[in-house]
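For reproducibility, we list the full input for the nicotinamide-adenine-dinucleotide complex.
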Amino acid sequence: MEKVAIVTGASRGIGREIAKELAKQGIKVVANYNKSEEKAKELKEKFNIDIFKADVSKHEEVKKIVDYTLEKYKTIDILINNAGIAQSKLIIDVTDDDWKRLVNTNLYSAFAMTREVCKTMINNKKGCIINISSIWGITGASMETIYSITKAGMDALTKSLAKELGPSNIRVNSIAPGMINTDMNKEWTQEEIEEIKQEIPLEKIGKVEDISKCVNWLIEDNYTTGQVISINGGWVI
Ligand code: NAD
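The corresponding predicted structure, in tokenized form, follows.
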């Protein structure tokens, strides 16, 4: 039987590449997007990937995407919690609204999506959940306090649920990327990127494919759970 996957925040960047890769392997993908309608439509037209508009920071919209997927495909085997936003600000300038926006988008979304999807996975006695966290959740990043907190929270979600859902044959893992070439990093100048490369043992910035390859591997695997897999060129060892 064909596997069914939901990928959040899949209109561009890492999520888009993951959605395309999964679809290439014959997995039925529901690619979630929030704002980039044009890019999402391109996924549907060029790659025959199902798309669904939802703001996954909101419970009612999380419910809608899960209900849609179950109604159409009857099951969910794979969940990739990828949607995320970054922010760089001094702690003294960070507002409560910043906190709510980042925590709801990066962390609550992963929690709420997982809570809905795992009901089906528990019934099926199988499932694979992957949280796209970050190197900064492991090390902490100056001027990215809330972002780092949300990503560390995702890793805690991974570890807790790996323990709770393991007996139901559901594997939960995080992939913690280092710096990957996507729009999220478009504010960096070429000079700054060259400086960062010098800190990375492999002397290069990662590509979206570096992350999707690990997703493929985690889906195929059956004995890895509760892990935070760093894909960062050796930036943090
Ligand atoms: P990106 O900005 O290109 O993609 C993020 C996607 O999330 C976008 O498509 C955006 O529309 C979507 N999104 C944001 N808020 C949403 C919401 N409320 N509902 C639905 N979708 C929403 O950046 P990316 O680099 O592809 O990031 C993907 C994930 O990887 C993020 O969670 C990010 O934190 C993480 N990450 C990226 C890097 C990097 O260097 N690019 C490093 C570590 C972790």
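The pocket of nicotinamide-adenine-dinucleotide is lined by residues 8-9, 11-15, 32, 34-36, 55-57, 82-86, 105, 132, 134, 177, 179-180, 182-185 (CB under 6 Å). Residues 96-124 form the longest helix (29 residues). Both points were considered when choosing residues for closer inspection.
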